[in-house]
Amino acid sequence: MKLITASHVCVRFGTDEVLHDINLDVSKGEIVTILGPNGSGKSTLLRALLGIVPVAEGRITRAPGLRIGHVPQKLMIDRTMPITVRRFLSLPTRVTDAAAEETLARVGMAGHGTDQMTTLSGGQQQRVLLARALLGAPQLLMLDEPTQGLDQPGEAAFYRLIEEVRTETGAAVLMISHDLHVVMAASDRVICLNGHICCEGTPRVVSTAPEYRALFGLGTQGALALYRHDHDHDHKDGPAHHSHDHRHDHRHEHDHA
After folding, report:
1. Helix 152-169, helix 122-134: angle, nearest 10
2. Which of 18, 34, 72, 107 is deepest in the core (most CB within 10 A)?
3. How far is it, in rounded angstroms, from Cα 240 to Cα 208?
4. Measured distance CA(198)–CA(242) in Å, rounded
């Protein structure tokens, strides 16, 4: 079941075309990571999918009544206005103490309800943001570079948490990243973006795609993750799906695994 679909989407700011001919979809229970360098249009694409940024061409369709949970890059808190974790979870929609406690426990923040948001570490703040997103029982979680500013152990722990949430709730996940090192091997698909979709496929397959190497080079030997997952070894990876590059006339065949 397709939860959200972008068909031939273009986004322009004035005369500047930021996104060109984007075609993607996210299905129920799927984890999709969008990977690209700074300035590649990743956050713009996420905002377009959320309906915040208008599309110049194409269309975005969502499943009827689709519940989306959004986790932004980081939290901007006015340090002169104290707010506890528990109170933050009731913004903008009030939730019960039981629901708040259950969700905090799910994201590894049990017992932190009375903490001030300003005293939390970056990783703890991201977990609270995730908890707030989960309170709406989303069918689709959208995360915009959620591990930016975290160290590698923090990144790995957060991505394991996302995978656990997907397993427990069945929510699909669409995640944005700019850092090759934090892309989760458990992703079902990785989409390389640089104004257009360069290529897509499993993490292992995308790491060998010429378009991917052109964006990220060979310095990491295509290592896409901080940890490997059993799913990596349970099935044969299919070839990457290379999308037509509107800047260069490369043509590729599209096979399915």
Report:
1. 10
2. 34
3. 9
4. 6
Q: Of 222, 108, 103, 105, which Cα lies nearest the Cα of 157?
A: 108
Calculate the average pLDDT of the chain: 84
What are the tens digits of pLDDT across the range 102-150? 999 999 999 999 999 999 998 999 999 999 999 999 999 999 988 888 8
Strand, helix or coil at 121?
coil
For the chain, the structural domain boundaries read 1-67+140-257, 75-137
In one-letter notation, the amino acid at residue 3 is L
Say how far apart CA 134 and CA 179 lie, in whole Å.
Answer: 25
Residues 1-67+140-257, CATH architecture: 3-Layer(aba) Sandwich (3.40)
pLDDT, position 59: 97
pLDDT in tens, 166-180: 999 999 999 998 766
* Residue ranges of E strands in the chain: 2-13, 16-27, 31-35, 57-62, 68-71, 140-144, 172-177, 189-193, 197-201, 241-242
Q: Position 203: which residue type?
A: P
163: tokens are: 């995978």
Contact 138, 67 (CB under 8 A): yes
Residue 74 clears pLDDT 60, i.e. is over it? yes
SS3 113: coil
Contact 243, 192 (CB under 8 A): no
Which residues, 6 or more positions from 257, have their beta carbon under 8 angstroms from its beta carbon?
235, 236, 237, 238, 239
Question: For residues 244 and 252, what is the distance between their CA atoms, to the nearest angstrom?
Answer: 8
Record the tokens describing residue 225, joined without a space. 């993750």
Is the distance from CB of 39 to CB of 109 less than 8 angstroms? Answer: no
